[in-house]
Every structure is written in C-alpha cells, then in structure tokens.
Write a structure and sequence with these properties.
This protein has seven helices and nine strands, in the order E-E-E-H-E-H-E-H-E-H-E-E-H-H-E-H. By secondary structure, the protein is α/β, with parallel strands linked by helices. A hairpin with a 2-residue loop joins strand 2 and strand 3. The longest helix has 12 residues. It is globular, with a radius of gyration of 16 Å.
C-alpha cells in the first residue's frame, strides 16, 4: 500500500488527570510510537503525525521513525484543527488518504491493511471506514481526494464525522474484529480495566 496515513495525536488527554494517554506503554512502547510504527509498517507512502507544538514529550517518543511531524498550533480549538493541518501535508497527487486516531489501542496493522485494501476509487464510493464486528463505524477511515476540500473547511471538535455523514451512501463500512475500530482509553480507570483484561489474575 502506498496511501498516505495520517495519525491524529495532538489532543490534550484532559480526562487522564495529569497523565498522557499517548505516552502510556503498550506492547513495550509508548502508545504513540506503537501507532506510528504500525502505520509506517503498512504503507510506503508518507505517514503524517499531527502533534502539539514542540517541545513536547510526544515528539521525543517518535524519534528515529520515518515520519512527517506536523505541529498543530491551534489544537486546543478541537479535533478539526488537527485534521486540517494534517491533510494540508498530504501530497497533492494523492488519490486518497487514511486517517487514524492515535488512541485506538487495539488497532492492528492488519486492520489498516484490510481497510486500505477495500478501497476502490472507481466504484463511486468516497469513504472506506473501519467498523466494529457489529457494524458500529469507527477507524481507520480512508477519504478519497474529492473530499479533501470539505475536510479543509472543518471546524470545532466533531472531527470528520460531518464529512462522513454528508457522504451518505458513498461510505463503505469494513468490519474489523471485536471493538478494535472504536476502543479508546480516555481515563486512568479505562487503562486499568483494559490492562486487567489483557492480564487477568
């Protein structure tokens, strides 16, 4: 796959009460590094990571990886600011780009590949979106280039949901195992519960 992949990692982890969820260790690495390395492993295209402005520990956690780091100066304004900045770094000739939330801790490289391989730009569809095995829409999401102009006009904290909603029947859901497409961990309690599930006593 040579599709650009965008990793959104500029959020503030407000509900973690002082901790940074993207620096929590998963599979022996900070989560943000795990996610970036996963994206890097599935595409020969550019991997764009939207981050808070430096200096910031998330930048340090990504050292040595072949990534395009994009600082989002107005990240506090909501997710749309991160999406706009990141899509602005997509190569202009790219026919589509994949968007991934950095905090989806259960996503696997095969999930990104499955969604990427489902893309058929000749089909009239414009969005290909990972979903839970019961059909709830989630991530990753691939947007055809025809939607990039709409994405550039996003505002607020709703992310790209409005673009997906407006696309109606042009959206393809790609079921992934379990709740991988939606499982995020926003609080210390979420992390404790998830670790208990992985390592039951």
């Amino acid at each position: 796959m040579d599709m650009p992949i965008i990793l959104l990692a500029a959020g503030q982890s407000r509900r973690m009460r002082g901790a940074d969820k993207l620096l929590m260790r998963v599979d022996g690495r900070p989560l943000i590094r795990r996610q970036a390395a996963m994206a890097r492993s599935v595409t020969s295209g550019v991997v764009i990571v939207a981050l808070p402005p430096p200096p910031h520990p998330r930048h340090d956690a990504l050292q040595g990886l072949d990534l395009t780091l994009v600082a989002v100066p107005d990240a506090r304004d909501g997710m749309a600011a991160s999406i706009r900045c990141a899509f602005g770094a997509v190569p202009p000739q790219a026919p589509a780009a994949m968007l991934v939330l950095a905090d989806l801790v259960e996503l696997q490289a095969d999930d990104l590949r499955k969604v990427g391989q489902s893309v058929d730009l000749s089909s009239g569809k414009r969005i290909w979106r990972g979903a839970t095995e019961t059909g709830e829409p989630g991530h990753p999401i691939v947007f055809a280039a025809a939607l990039f102009a709409q994405i550039a006009r996003l505002h607020g904290n709703a992310g790209a949901r409005s673009v997906a909603t407006a696309s109606g029947d042009a959206v393809v859901l790609v079921p992934l195992p379990g709740r991988r497409a939606r499982r995020d961990l926003d609080t210390p309690e979420d992390w404790e519960s998830w670790r208990s599930e992985r390592n039951p006593r």
